[in-house]
Design goal:
This protein folds into two domains: 61 residues, 2,3-Dihydroxybiphenyl 1,2-Dioxygenase, domain 1; 90 residues, Roll (2,3-Dihydroxybiphenyl 1,2-Dioxygenase, domain 1). The protein is 33% helix and 28% strand. The protein has five helices and eight strands; from the N terminus they run E-H-E-E-E-E-H-E-E-E-H-H-H. The mean pLDDT is 97.
């Protein structure tokens, strides 16, 4: 069976990015670095909690965009806050739990509770949670729950 893995095109600094990402996620590491003609890292392979990725330091020919993002499903608000703060450092906030890190990679930092609220069998309750999400930058579980319950301020 063939294997598929995402390959992210970086201008440069792919090794620094992969090392940073691997330091944040459990069971993660940089697994291989292949040098280019000038000896600097050209291809960087890394794993984030068992999922493999590749970075190609291909130069300025292409730019990353939010059309590709990495979604991080978090168990609680503390996890949301930890990943949000660590990945946002030097980057830029967006809406609905999205951010772009300092290397231009887009991330969605999503509490699992949001997925549960979106799937609520009561469409009004699910809709209120989604409306609340649309107004947030960092997702806040307590605010999503309050909105779903109709008790948000």
């Amino acid at each position: 069976m063939p294997t598929t893995l995402p390959c992210l095109w970086f201008d440069r600094d792919g090794l620094a990015a992969a090392q940073h990402y691997a330091s944040l996620f459990p069971n993660s590491s940089v697994t291989s670095v292949s040098p280019g003609p000038d000896g600097s890292p050209l291809v960087v392979e890394f794993s984030l909690d068992g999922r493999d990725y590749v970075i190609l330091n291909g130069g300025p020919g292409y730019a990353l965009s939010p059309a590709f993002s990495i979604q991080v499903l978090c168990d609680d608000q503390a996890e949301v806050d930890r990943y949000w703060d660590a990945l946002l450092e030097g980057g830029e906030e967006s809406r609905c739990g999205w951010l772009t890190d300092r290397w231009g990679v887009s991330w969605q930092i999503v509490p699992r509770r949001l997925l549960e609220l979106r799937a609520d069998p009561d469409p009004a309750r699910a809709g209120r949670a989604v409306q609340a999400m649309l107004g947030m930058r960092r997702l806040v579980v307590a605010e999503l729950e309050a909105a779903a319950d109709g008790t948000a301020r």
